[in-house]
Amino acid sequence: MSRERRIPTGIAGLDRVIEGGVRDNTTLLVVGSSGTGKSTFAMQYLNYGLEHGENGLYISMEEPPEQILREAKMLGFNLDRYYEKELFFFHSKGKDFVKLVDEQLPALVEMNKNFSVKTRVVIDPLTPLTWAIQDKQEQREIITKLFYTLKQLGPVLITTEEHAAPGETIGEDVLIPIYMSDGAVHLTYRPIGGAFNRALEIVKMRATRHGEEVYPYIFVRGIGVVVRTTPLVSAEDMRKYDDLFNKAIRTAADLGASEIVLERLAYVRENWSYPFSPKETLQIFFESQGLTDALTRDEIARRKEESIPSDIQLDLRELSSRASEPDISADLKGEDEGLIEIDSLRDLEEMVR
């Protein structure tokens, strides 16, 4: 898992479930229907960067800069103080957008190479572009070029409106932007009354261990979006299943699992971030790899023989000590149904003798 520096989004609560923020030079797509607060996400994201010494570029496909600044002030974000100093706007419509992608933005990227200040970019919204270009291949090409160009400036947040048909989880009209982005957050609005009728779900976040729940959020003037989350599993909790994983790895090795399978188990151990036990997951994985208690004596011997180089001798004392260890199957599955029958090692020891 990547340990590179994370850039906080400034969206209260969201960073808690995406390992502290987004990666630099990546795109984060915020998808939602009308009324979910996509523009508030965008303004809050941009405002945080400006308050922490970054520059800002706001690409608006609909509203002029004056209206965006007014709406930001109503939310408690005074973007006026940065206007045309650290904050710059591109207001583009129709055919002008193609010129923006092909000429203006590449020129800006080239000019920005002489400056060390990071630029945080917002596109709000991308929707007019996806509506204007009906051909999916052409749409994909221009979005690819747009994302590639902007990521050279810094982290990018893009909003887009979706119009999901009945029964759709995510609208078909936003599938290409979601696919092309590095991360995607889905906002939903359920007008059922009460404080928490809006919710957020992380669709994807490349190279990031992220939360997988549905998180309600509210709007607070002066703060913006506040996502109600529970912290991810703490470092201490992440390690509490290590003994179980280690026993599973030893069991797999004793049953002749390949080095690749053992490496995968070790990787799962290092990245297990769920608050529940991995026993069932391990059981299913063992079954998918054919590591079950139904293994015959000949199959166990064959796997052992294939997994151990010929110049390595089995240590019978180690086998004996392993055979005398408590059966870990109860730890993996429970008292009545063992994941692995460790008793079969005694048969293997007799064969080796």
Automatic annotation (TrEMBL):
Domain spans labelled KaiC: 5-243
Keywords from the named record: ATP-binding, Nucleotide-binding
GO molecular function annotation: ATP binding
SUPFAM superfamilies tied to this protein: P-loop containing nucleoside triphosphate hydrolases
Signal peptide: none
Keyword ATP-binding set for record: yes
Superkingdom field: Archaea
Record-given protein name: Circadian clock protein KaiC
Source species of the chain: Methanolobus chelungpuianus
